[in-house]
Amino acid sequence: MDTNHITQLASLAHPQRLALFRLLVRRYPDQVSAGELADAIDARQNTLSSYLNSLRSAGLIAQTREGRSLLYRADMEQSAALVGYLVADCCRGRPDLCPPLVQPTPSGEKPMSDRKYNVLFICTGNSARSIFGESILRFEAGDRFNAYSAGTYPYSELNPFAVEMLAHKGHDISALRAKNIAEFQTPDAPEMDFVFTVCDRAANEECPAWAGQPISAHWGMPDPVKAEGTEAERKLAFQQAYAGLRNRILAFTALPLESLDRISLQHHVDDIARDMESQ
Fold first, then answer.
1. Percent share of the chain, pLDDT over 90
2. What HEC string does 138-185 produce?
3. Between 20 and 30 A from 271 (CA), which of 31, 92, 127, 278?
4. Is residue 104 part of a domain?
5. Most confident option among 75-89, 190-204, 205-219
6. pLDDT value at 128 more than 90
7. Does residue 106 lie in a domain region?
């Protein structure tokens, strides 16, 4: 067995290092600060540094510096190489011997039929950002997409600033309500084609795998609910969150979904987050 792959597997053999790596994969293509990672996996800084150094030495994550902060991102190329090695070596090039494996759609094959696609937006409280995502997608492309939203720890009521702004912009708010993510994980729930997390906390949480292996991405947005200051300043935070999500959704709906294979489509939805962050 290749020495580098032995090192990578050994690094992932520790439960918290594996949890840390999985978190960074969920947040990809985000770069996440060490402080946020420590909070997410409840680890002390010196312990976290040890975990990060191990994953970096194995080539599974990359580190960059931004000012005085160290930021970390999963190295998806190395991760894909490790999975490919296991399939080729352990399964002897026969994935049927090592189920279940995600089988990417062959390049050039249309991955989705001509139907309405189901899209779920997730944040923690399901009171503003994910509600924006649901409302915007339904308004902009409701003929092509069924839009849903949910929260990992939903509030009992929607944020009044969010509801007021949606109504002012012409959205139908009559059916909007805060929903728990569990509603979409039952056997009779609609099977999702796309799942987008729109807050960092929700993306950091470990959730069960979605049925049907939907394409997922993290489109993190600052939480307008936590904005402070005057009423005008707080409303501005909601306007900015709405505008940021609308830009992402318009870019998403412009994609030629029927002509992209699964791998290309995943790259595109990741690029939407990365491109919008750089603007």
1. 61
2. HHHHCCCEEEEEEECCCCCCCCHHHHHHHHHCCCCCCCCCCCEHHHHC
3. 127
4. no
5. 190-204
6. yes
7. no
